[in-house]
Design goal:
- This protein has twelve helices and 15 strands.
- Helix 3 (85-93) runs parallel beside helix 4.
- It has 351 residues and is an alpha/beta fold.
- Helices cover 40% and strands 21% of the residues.
- The strands form three sheets. The protein has an eight-stranded parallel β-sheet with strand order 8-7-6-5-4-3-10-9.
- The relative contact order is 0.09.
- Helix 11 links the parallel strand 12 and strand 13 (312-317).
- The longest helix is centred in the middle third of the chain and has 17 residues, at 148-164.
- It folds into two domains: 9-252, Dihydropteroate synthase-like (TIM Barrel), CATH 3.20.20; 259-348, Sulfite Reductase Hemoprotein, domain 1.
- The protein binds iron/sulfur cluster (SF4).
- Residues 264-267, 269-270, 297-299, 302-303, 306 line the site of iron/sulfur cluster.
Length: 351
Amino acid sequence: MSRANTRVVKIGDRVIGGGNPILIQSMTNTKTEDVEATVKQIQALTEAGCDIIRCAVPTMEAAKALSEIKKQISIPLVADIHFDYRLAIAAIENGADKIRINPGNIGSRDRIQAVVDAAKERQIPIRVGVNSGSLEKELVEKYNGVTAEGLVESALDKVRIIEEMGYDNLVISIKSSDVMMCAKAHELITNQTDHPLHVGITEAGTLYSGNIKSAVGLGIILYQGIGDTIRVSLTGDPLEEIKSAKRILKTLGLRKGGIEVVSCPTCGRTQIDLIGLANQVETLVQSYDLDIKVAVMGCVVNGPGEAKEADLGVAGGKGVGILIKKGEIVKKVPESELLSVLKDELDHWGK
Ligand code: SF4
């Protein structure tokens, strides 16, 4: 089902599916047992625009820490559990708003049933997550390797197991570090289920390659109307994941708000330190919630024309900077003052 028609699922005080806005998730990389550090990171991520946070629950101490963490944060918390069904139940008892499990590694049917019963009692959704790295042997053999078809079959098998246990408050994720396999799996599964999908490219890599792989993968999937929540997985600071996720959604026209910076690629006519200036502007605009476009151009000759589609722009040339509004030069300032002039404009935008 396209995201307009997936089932609505409630996670804490947020709703996903059924055409609701796509929410951004991230995952803490602190020790969940360390309440103070985890809360601090969640608060910073919330400030940056994270809608839902996931914490690993590898120990009983981590499960118990969830109740204290929950008291100090304002976004829904998802507990991520592998292998031990008792940790899943403890996480639910300690206030997790959703749990993420792979029923394939939770063990016997009785154990899965115990987790499902606990979730059902509190009406919290279960995310059924399958990952290309842990696809069952039978499916690898059936499809001659790890394939999109195998991933889909694995996910739907697990969904069926839980549905047969009498619970259908579910979200599905199928992840692969192979971008095209991941995209194909989403295209296949979307016609076979109406449960919301959490989308991400797993183990995407460091900032550089992770961003590119996530942008390409999520771009293909989201553009087809698939996906209700997203995560950009990066080997790096989770704050970068939020920045990238917001940019991906904005680029696809799926989220409004936030200043978009466009900057020229520089050429032989560039007369200022444009790379430095563009980076400074990119940092400056993070703290404004204006839905506008700001252009940063390298020369006063072509800059204004090339910045025509932007609401606001700056261009520089031989020590002189210009301020541009909708392609018109409105002010000349010393180059060194360009950033502060731009800041002043943003501070007073729309006032
Ligand atoms: S705006 Fe000027 S410096 Fe930048 S690419 Fe265009 S011509 Fe070159």
